[in-house]
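Weekly modeling sync, notes
Attendees: S.R. (lead), two postdocs, one rotation student

Agenda item 3: backlog of single-chain predictions. S.R. asked that every request posted to the team notebook include the full sequence so nobody has to chase files. The rotation student volunteered to paste the first one in as an example of the format we agreed on. Action items at the bottom.

Example entry:
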Amino acid sequence: MSARKTIQVAIVGCGGITLQNHLPGLALCPDVKLSALCDSDPAKLERARQQTGVTAVSTDYSQIVARDDVDAVIIATPNFTHSPIALAAITHGKHVLCEKPLALNFADALAMAQAAEAKGVRHMTAFTYRFVPAMRYLLHLVQQGDLGQPYHYRSCRLQDWGTRGLGWRQNKRAAGSGELGDMLSHRIDFAHLLVGPVNRLVANTRCWHPVRGDQPNDLEDWVALLAEFKCGATGVLESSKLASGRNESWRSLDYVEINGSEGSFVFVTGEWNRLQGGKVGGPGLETIPVPEEFWKCPGSPRDARQGDPLVTFRYDQAWEFIDAIRNQRACVPDFRDGARAQEVMDAALRSAQTQQWVDLPASVV
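Predicted structure, as returned to the notebook:
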């Protein structure tokens, strides 16, 4: 695709994540036009139309993904709609960025990846936290061998959501899973990125509040799993919406630690420009500044010194998507990454139901 060609993007789903992440990210990308909007809620769609000035709007995604003036589609809708919308967009030759979790199950997620590859379109899973500068630098350190042989991976995501209503996110039919898909999916992706694929796991979930707001809640608000990785490392992952007093979003605890034969590293989302690290036999962990070259994705037009850095790193996700389209390269992370995480999530749900260890097959992803 010519670097001078304007890439026309449609967004399906005009809720909070679109306003917070996708629209600001697209606004930073040169030669990009927001050409169409879709939402099943007419009132929400009208608010987005007024905010953006986009005139091509519809409550029917099939009309939007078929438009000739749409090159790419961003999907930010309830989880159960991800697969049908993505497959429809792919059928019409559109590039697709889809929110996580990619689908309700591994089979659907893999089918999405295979369909996109067969059609030759770019495909991306919205694992937004990959773009935190400290995470990008941690991956660099691991890849250059500073960790050595991985021994242990652990992550802890604690937020205080109380008992308020979560809309479709508290409905199994619409969401598939609760805290597992909503928050732990990101940390599963971290584990794959830093350590590699999971070999087997045992998991547990808990629904503390069967009613949220004034509506039934049939999904977990706490999840934990114990994992063994194919490389031999061990893992402990926990995530909760009920860590009272921990606040929410980037103001709450999002912690990852990885230990290896040569050293250890700690990544905390809120500490966007530094890591903690220590060498084997050393006196303890010390602060490691993140070099400025890792503050944003290479080529991103974003000024990393402007705005709240705990928010603006998310805009690089749109840059990655658009740049991959323009240069006809693979997106990072792609649908295969989303399917890998979904495979682990499916295993975690089976384990929680049976209260047994679950082996993951030799993955086809």
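Discussion: group reviewed the output briefly. The CA atoms of residues 159 and 241 lie 5 Å apart.
Action items: rotation student to repeat for the remaining queue; S.R. to check formatting next week.
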